[in-house]
Amino acid sequence: MLNALETNRRTDKAQAEANRARSVLRQNIEYIKSYLDPHPPSEDKANLMKKIEEIDKWLISNKKELTNDIRNKFESIEEDAKKMLIKYPKVE
What we know:
Elements: H1 2-36, H2 43-61, H3 68-87
Helix pairs in contact: 1-2, 2-3
């Protein structure tokens, strides 16, 4: 019985960590989208928004663990967003 409780505790802890990671990704995505929104359309912006949409749909559509592919795509989005931050200063 104690083994079952310990297993459940570990599973709950892992699930909570996965949910936290998903939440952080969603917050970062929303920040990037809000930053890009006032900027005029461009090919860079369109490509970045397409990547964001893909990850956003994945995060919303399932509760699976984050895959390496999704993590890599998100890191790519962050890198592209940093480049755009330099290219397009914040619009107030």
